[in-house]
Amino acid sequence: VQLQASGGGLVQPGGSLRLSCAASGSIFGMSVMGWYRQAPGKERELVARITTLSTTNYADSVKGRFTISRDNAKSTLYLQMNTLVPADTAVYYCNAWRPGLTNYWGKGTQVTVSS
Question: What mean pLDDT, rounded, does the chain reach?
């Protein structure tokens, strides 16, 4: 399984970005999908997660600003990020997890929020 994240970049505070994560292989529809991020000098943290039934949960810091979604037909995960702030600056990673079975990580995409 390969996970390819894209859509990162430089954006001004208050701006928006949409991240995508394309998954190869056949497990996408069976996996809990998540977005994590890691800022310099900090541990990787969960940003948002979406189950196979599309139940979602978010870190408190992004609630109301970020929206996670999935398209099982396209094996693609999305993260719509609005009202970005400098504290959102990090490398963002997508994750595919089947509890007790598999746990895959993609290479990250850099998001920088700066004026």
Answer: 95
Please enumerate in sequence order all residues whose Cβ is within 8 A of that of 95, keeping only pairs 6 or more positions apart, or say none: 3, 33, 34, 35, 36, 103, 104, 105, 106
pLDDT tens, position by position, 5-41: 999 999 999 999 999 999 987 888 899 999 999 999 9
Phi, psi of 88 (to 5 degrees): -80, -5
Quick: pLDDT tens for 42-56: 999 999 999 999 999
What span, in angstroms and rounded, lies between the C-alpha atoms of 37 and 44? 5
What is the maximum alpha-carbon separation in the chain? 43
Please enumerate, as own/partner, the contacts of 56-63 that have beta carbons within 8 Å and a separation of 24 or more.
61/87, 62/88
